[in-house]
Amino acid sequence: MLNVVLINPEIPPNTGNIGRLCCAVGARLHLVKPLGFRLEDRYLKRAGLDYWDKLDLAVWNDLETYLAATCPVQMVLTSSKRGEIYHNIGYKPGDHILFGPETTGLSMEMFERFPARIARIPIDLNKVRSLNLSTAAGIVVYEALRKIGELPEL
What we know:
One of its GO terms (molecular function) is RNA binding. This protein has 154 residues and is of the alpha/beta class. The chain has helices at 12-25, 42-48, 63-70, 108-113, 133-148; strands at residues 3-7, 28-32, 57-60, 75-79, 84-85, 96-99, 118-120.
C-alpha cells in the first residue's frame, strides 16, 4: 500500500480531493500538522464527497511524530524545481510520497535531510510556479502504482 503524506496542507479542497484519490487506489493518507483548516471543514468534506469515512487516514501532530511512528524506510519527496522526473523514480510498495504545503512546497531542510529520491513533474516554470497539489498527487500516485503493479482493477 502506498502512503501519501501531506506536510502542512493549507487548502481544504485539495486535501479532500487527495483523500478521494487515496480511497480510489487503496492508499493511506497521512496529514502532518499544522493544517491550514479543520478536519470538519465543509470544503474538505465536499471535495472528498461521501468517501471521507472510507479513507485510511492518519493525522500527526508534527513531522517528527510522523517519522517516529511510521519509520518510513522508503520516501519519495516531490518538487516542482528539483529531482528526477517522476516517471524515472523506482517506486516500491509501501513508499511514503511526501508533498509540501501548497504555497511553498517542501522545505529545503527536507531535501537536505532526505535527498535520496526526489520526484519532479516537468512544467514550464516560465509560465507557472507549480501544479495544483491534488493534480500533482494524482500524477505521481498513479505512476507509482503503475510501476509497482498495483493499479486498481477495472
